[in-house]
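Hi again,

Forgot to attach this to my earlier email, sorry! This is the prediction with guanosine-5'-monophosphate bound. I've pasted everything inline since the attachment limit keeps bouncing my files.
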Amino acid sequence: MACLFCKIVAGEIPSKRIYEDADLIAFEDINPEAPLHCLVVPRRHIATLNDLQPGDDALVGSMARCAAAIAKQRGVDQGGYRTVFNCNSEAGQTVFHIHLHLLGGRRLGWPPG
Ligand code: 5GP
Ligand code: ZN
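Structure tokens for the complex follow:
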């Protein structure tokens, strides 16, 4: 198993976990780009957004709801926050196990770089 996030899911690499359930974990990004920067990750290995299947719709919905719940818990839900899936190299994906970034706690520029 070479995938970094599969190792984090398995607990082989430590992370600061915020949330976990049967399908998902969420943990703090090791290199935060904002006061709140965490990653919501499915336990099952899916390399990119391009690999999602119709049967994954509920999983992706639960990832979005997990991010929204963390944003509320951290008090940024009303002020605003951003969720991002990077897909493949031109978008900056570096870990090929899908993850939803949750960023907040500062004003976020648009469009992103
Ligand atoms: P990507 O560039 O693939 O969209 O996002 C990968 C994210 O994973 C980056 O924000 C990076 O800081 C984070 N990351 C990379 N390695 C680790 C790690 O070992 N632990 C944690 N918690 N985050 C990591
Ligand atoms: Zn993986």
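The helical segments are 4-10, 57-73. The mean pLDDT is 97.

That should be everything now.

G.
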